[in-house]
């Protein structure tokens, strides 16, 4: 007997159900409803359908009509109507057995249930275990009042397109008769670049190429999303032009890697497609406070990473690649200024919510944008290992981006937003402030212990499909 046997026996041993006739009062009620509908057909044709029924019907049909207002009304009314009908049927059956006359049914008066306004809805919302739309009405009001601030302090950070560098400024000109000679020079320079550096360069490039994901992320944030795709609001302008500036980064790195001949471009392109298709979950909850704290941290982290690859490229002898990474790092630095200014204003206008939000993002920890990258081969080549984790380990080992950089960024933002000096906070915000001030030292201790363990451990050799399955120590 299988696991379902006991249950099956219970059902097989039951006696067949005998269908019982419905009480006469139910048949009378159904007949009355049909009569109402027939009577409605005789109403003037200029009356709307629902109005014709209301004019002809007693309460039960009118009650059903009024439940069209909202889905919540329908559920409330239906539940009340079913419960009332059940009680009425039971009452009529008892009276019929006693020979008494059934009392006249009293109609329920529907209660109006208004749909919650988007700005005042209960928060947060939980969908599939994810927190959404956690911003309070007060927080959204703060953001709504920041349009002029964004015009005066955020949009000027953007550069006119004519004054921005373009990828072609760093690449061999294909129309030049010396194009092939310049490509040969580029390839000779990149021969000196070690594989572990290439892994970091490619990982950074793939991260930059997933730009559609980051635009989508900004447009999930309540209060600042671009509602039309071409909204003239300062927030809409910022998002589109920020994306336009960022778009040059992936283009330049991609073309440089392609010309170098050192990397497997098909595997890289596959990884980019997979990453964009997977998206990301920064755990910002559609909340502008959390969202802009995240971008403030992330832009600085990206600046640090590109700055380190720029320095290393020059050390390896590829000065042009050093300039490429340096130009990208400079853009990230400008963008960091914009996002930190937004959070500056949150702390100035609403220090309590800003402090709590900052602490909340630090508790969650900042998720790197490319944490879902997958080339379709890394796990197969390396016994189930995770591609992003191994890429991060290589970056940590050679000094492109380390745990100490994470701690440095945390300390920088705490100092930038003057966290320690803010006074007059409420209870939750004061606790968040205390937590934030202790956090960097805790992280440093953890990172130092982790570094000590890694120093004692034997490094593993891992194959990366990006460099034609060559091995790199992690």
**Hey, roughly how much beta strand do the residues contain?**
under 5%
Architecture per CATH nomenclature, i.e. the level-2 architecture of the largest domain? Orthogonal Bundle
How many structural domains in the coordinates? 2
Whole-angstrom Rg: 33 Å
Report the oligomer: single chain
The averaged pLDDT comes out at 83
State the distance separating the first and last CA atoms. Answer: 53 Å
The beta-strand count equals 4
What is the percent of helical residues? 55-70%
Strand order of the largest sheet: 1-2
Instruction: Give me the number of helical elements.
Output: 19
Q: What would you give as the CATH superfamily of the largest domain? A: Ribonucleotide Reductase, subunit A
Q: What structural class do helix, strand and pairing data support?
A: mainly alpha
Return the CATH topology of the largest domain: Ribonucleotide Reductase, subunit A
CATH C-level name of the largest domain = Mainly Alpha
What does the overall shape look like? Answer: globular
Low-confidence stretches: 1-29, 44-98, 100-122
Largest sheet: 2 strands, antiparallel
Helix-strand topology string: HHHHHEEHHHHHHHHHHHHHHEE
């Amino acid at each position: 007997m299988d696991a379902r046997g006991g249950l099956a026996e219970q059902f097989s041993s039951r006696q067949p159900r005998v269908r019982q006739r419905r009480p006469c009062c139910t048949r009378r009620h159904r007949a009355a409803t049909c009569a109402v509908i027939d009577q409605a057909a005789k109403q003037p044709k200029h009356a709307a359908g629902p109005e014709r029924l209301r004019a002809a019907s007693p309460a039960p049909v009118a009650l059903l009509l009024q439940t069209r207002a909202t889905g919540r009304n329908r559920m409330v009314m239906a539940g009340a109507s079913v419960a009332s009908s059940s009680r009425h049927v039971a009452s009529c059956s008892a009276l019929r057995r006693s020979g008494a006359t059934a009392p006249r049914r009293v109609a329920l008066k529907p209660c109006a249930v208004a749909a919650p306004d988007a700005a005042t809805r209960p928060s947060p919302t939980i969908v599939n275990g994810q927190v959404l739309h956690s911003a309070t009405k007060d927080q959204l009001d703060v953001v709504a009042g920041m349009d002029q601030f964004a015009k005066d302090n955020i949009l000027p950070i953007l550069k006119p397109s004519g004054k921005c560098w373009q990828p072609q400024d760093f690449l061999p000109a294909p129309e030049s008769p010396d194009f092939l000679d310049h490509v040969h020079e580029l390839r000779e320079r990149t021969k000196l670049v070690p594989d572990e550096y290439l892994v970091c360069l490619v990982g950074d490039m793939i991260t930059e190429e997933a730009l559609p994901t980051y635009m989508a992320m900004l447009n999930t944030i309540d209060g600042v999303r671009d509602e039309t795709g071409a909204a003239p609001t300062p927030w809409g302008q910022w998002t589109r032009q920020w994306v336009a500036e960022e778009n040059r980064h992936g283009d330049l790195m991609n073309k440089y890697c392609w010309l170098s001949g050192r990397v497997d471009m098909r595997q890289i392109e596959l990884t980019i497609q997979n990453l964009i298709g997977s998206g990301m979950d920064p755990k910002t909850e559609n909340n502008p406070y959390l969202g802009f704290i995240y971008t403030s941290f992330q832009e600085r982290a990206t600046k640090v990473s590109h700055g380190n690859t720029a320095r290393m490229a020059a050390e390896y002898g590829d000065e042009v690649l050093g300039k490429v990474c340096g130009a990208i790092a400079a853009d990230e630095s400008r963008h960091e200024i914009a996002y930190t200014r937004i959070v500056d204003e949150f702390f100035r206008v609403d220090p309590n919510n800003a402090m709590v939000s900052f602490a909340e993002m630090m508790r969650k920890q900042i998720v790197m944008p490319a944490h879902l990258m997958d080339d379709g081969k890394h796990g197969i080549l390396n016994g189930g290992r995770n591609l992003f984790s191994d890429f991060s380990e290589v970056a940590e080992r050679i000094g492109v981006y380390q745990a100490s950089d994470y701690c440095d960024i945390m300390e920088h933002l705490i100092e930038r937003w003057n966290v320690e000096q803010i006074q007059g906070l409420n209870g939750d915000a004061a606790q968040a402030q205390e937590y934030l001030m202790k956090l960097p030292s805790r992280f440093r201790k953890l990172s130092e212990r982790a570094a000590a363990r890694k120093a004692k451990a034997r490094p593993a050799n891992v194959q990366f499909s990006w460099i034609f399955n060559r091995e790199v120590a992690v």
